Amino acid sequence: MIDALLQACGGFVDRVARPNRRPLSRVTRQDMPNGFFLNDLLWFGDGASRKTAIARGFSVEPGEINAFSVRQLNDLHERLRILLGILGDEYTLQVQWSIDSDYRQELEDYHRETLELRRRDPVHGQFGVIVRAERYERYKAAMEEGRLRRERLTLFFCRVLDTQVPVTGSRAVVQYFDTLSRKESLALHELGLGTVSRLFPDCLVRPMGDYKHFLYYYRFLNPNVFLPDTDPRELFDPAFSIQQNCLHDEGLTHTTVPASSFCLGGLHHAIFAVRQWPRRTFPGIISTLTSMGFQEYAITLNVYPKSVDKVIDAEEKNIQRLQIDAVSERKQSLVADLAAKQDKVTELQQGKVIPLGCLYVVRIWHRNADALVSRCATLRNAFTAMGGAVVHHASIPENARQLFYQTWPGWTFGAYRAFDLPAEDTYLADLIPWSATFTGHLAGAEAIYNGARGNLVGIRTRLNGTPQHGVLFGMTGAGKSVIISDLLAQIGHRFGFRLIVEEGLSHGVLTQTQGCEPIIVNPNGGLTINYLDTGGVPLSPLHLTFAAGLGLLFAGHEGLDGERKALRSALLTENLQQLYTDVFNDWTMENEAAAEELRWRACAIDKFLRTRLKGGQFNFVDAFAAFRDWEAQKPDEAHAFIQELGEQAVVDFAKAPATAGRVRDLAFAYFRADQYPTHSALVEQILYGPRAGLQEREECDRVGKLLRAWGRDGERGNLFDGPTTVRIDGRVAHFELGQIPEHAVEMRAAANFLVANYGRQKIITMPRAVPKIAIFEEAARTLDAPGGIKIIQEYYRQMRKFGCNILAVVQQYDVIKHSPVRGAMIGNSKLFLITAQQSREDAREIGEALSLSEKTIDTIYNYPLPELMDPKDRFSAFTYVANERSRKLIGTVKNVASRELLYAASSDNETFDRRTAAMRRYPNVITAILNESENMACARENSATDPIL
């Protein structure tokens, strides 16, 4: 790249090699700026001058200023003052704010993933392709029609370098410029990124490289970049100058159209420069300028630090003159001016204010001249509303041309300074357009939605491959099921396994699109899930706790005092331990060879835990899963690891009291479904061979009889007793619990608890590298069961290391407000979706738990309910909160679902049955959805970009 720079200079190296000639710059400060994209710098000029201007850009993504609370605005004001004060004498700052409709790059990345899904999984990926393609086409059309909105905020830190070359010879000069540019690029990187990130930890700050600089310039000089069939990424050539890369028009041309300052790229442009600051400013005043109701305009601030000493000297001279005038003319106004000047000198001397110079320019452009006239009038009114600020409309060609040059990105060194105004940090901080459109995680987005103000918002459930657990808060009728169905339709292909636990079959059709059927839990059905089946993982203390908790629910725990509950729990745990031990001993006697192999494997896993998984957070089950994955990937290494143990070490391991139990625990990872102990066996153990003293026999007898009612021959049916009759072998395990009668509270709680534990076992048995997701639409039901809190805590605390995302739906925050599970759910979640709430108190409590501002809480409370909307304008809104290490993303998402998605997100058992019957007439589920959904009412395409706040 440096070679290209020198080559473009046209003989510059030769001139430098002959030092008797003074090198002259071929780029002046009066004409159109030019330079190169060099080592992540904007390098203005060709290096032939003794002084060279450089700049580096940083894209900043703060929240939208319209959503800030008063406290946030005041805090922002102080931080912006600090930013203005750190420039010193060496650096200048350019603030660029613009608004457009360009989401091309993110949409094309999203579309490429859709095409890859269609290629990789043409059968089960069909529905995801349909939903994603519909969104892509809808968003792309809105972008090309200019109905999308995207605010961009960019800071350019600029300085002037001494580029007098101290060496001779082409090779030495090349090396000198390369080293110099890299050093300065790094210095500006550290200044910009470090300073802005420290001052604004709530903002995403990205340093710009050569390609990003190019894209920014291309968008600046070609406002029609979003037009179809235009992809500027193919046009970048680092060997070309800025103008060669980005200026593909005839340049600025004069026009006689009223309000138009010049024409560029087939568009009329109007340039306005501030001539007088507002009489009074306040934090948030700039929102008048950033919310004018249209797009296609930009704001540029060139900020120049001033020497405090020189400003004080100038003010003292003014004071001396005013003192004389005030005495001679005896005017009170002069006395007031004198006092103001004296106060200003005091503040300058004490460092309370910082003197600055600033060029403040607003540029508007439009293809239609009449529309430009109207927008110019709107802009004038906006400035008038901002404390009576006065602006100059550049209508003289040379005047407009020079002002336009001063707004070029990174260029703060132009000689045309007629419109610079003296300023102070106290009020200039309020006039910085510190606002950008909320886009969430749009870069690399897994799912894309509309935003509240015509923007697009991206959602990611994984960052750098790490699962981001989540919680969805929402009242009934707020569109929770449609939100989850839409999210699954867009991101489902990224997961090798999905666990869904719900009541109502909202996701039944969606499950069928994956070649699976919902598992409907019915007390009178033939389904059996053995809660004593470990599901292919070793027996663990946690599993015993779950089983004992379920047994406690079976035996009835309401009304018991704490001591009685603890006694029953201890009795159940002790008898479960004995039951598992008896089953293991019987199996050992019948399978001596397998038992011996098991001892070696248990010893190897224990050694693997001690030597490979160092840390107190890992347990034997973790080691089992890690060892299994290692063995699958590198079987020879794993086999050698086992053989290295030695027979005596294995014997000692199997006999030692501290480790002997692990052989038993591991055995249950390899049992068949019919080999596990059952509920009936536990009842028999408690009634006829209890592990209890004489005083506890009476309690055992009572518990055993209560448990019997939940057996195969009891009134509860066979759901809990017998070998498991269902195995989760597909890509989706969808458990529907809505057919359990509402009055059967204990049955519902037990079924939720059972299914959650069964799903946990499935997740653990799968390779960790396979992404998984577990969704609990009725988390409160699981929490109702004894031990339910522990299982939800286990999901949120431990499933991340098994590659599993967790998303729980909470209808009422009171359910977890005072529960021990609150810490696990809130503390381990990085993703929160908050729909409309039933009361302001609910919204406030959620806001306090997540540290949301009062304005955000008000927004949540005021979300409309989809069921109350006209179907042609129906949407569901939610606040997206994403906690990152250095900042928190907060913004509103507007979900406008397609008719195909609405059809698949059936809302109850009756609707699901009716749609299942209708779909039998078609050859496959996808064809059925496409045909049956044709007549469904859904929102108009244009309504998706209508603002809702």
Give the termini distance in whole angstroms: 47 Å
Stretches where pLDDT is under 50 for at least 5 consecutive residues are 8-26
Query: Main beta sheet: strand number and arrangement?
Result: 12 strands, antiparallel
Shape: elongated
Number of strands: 25
For the record, the count of structural domains works out to 3
Strand content bin: 15-25%
Contiguous helical run count:
35
Helix/sheet category: alpha+beta
Roughly how much helix do the residues carry, as a percent range?
A: 40-55%
Mean pLDDT: 88
Rg is 35 Å
Would you write up a description of this structure?
The structure is a single chain. The protein is an alpha+beta fold and 949 residues long. The protein has three domains: 2-103 and 148-431, no CATH class; 467-527 and 726-861 and 873-878 and 898-945, P-loop containing nucleotide triphosphate hydrolases (Rossmann fold, 3-Layer(aba) Sandwich); 542-688, no CATH class. Helices cover 45% and strands 16% of the residues. The protein is built from 35 helices and 25 strands. Strands 1, 2, 3, 4, 5, 6, 7, 8, 9, 10, 11 and 12 form a twelve-stranded antiparallel beta sheet that branches. Strands 14-13-25-24-23-17-22-21-18-20-19 form an eleven-stranded mixed beta sheet. A hairpin with a 4-residue loop joins strand 24 and strand 25. Helix 17 (541-555) crosses helix 18 (562-590), helix 17 (541-555) packs antiparallel against helix 26 (745-765) and helix 19 (592-611) packs across helix 20 (620-633). The longest helix is centred in the first third of the chain and has 30 residues, at 170-199.
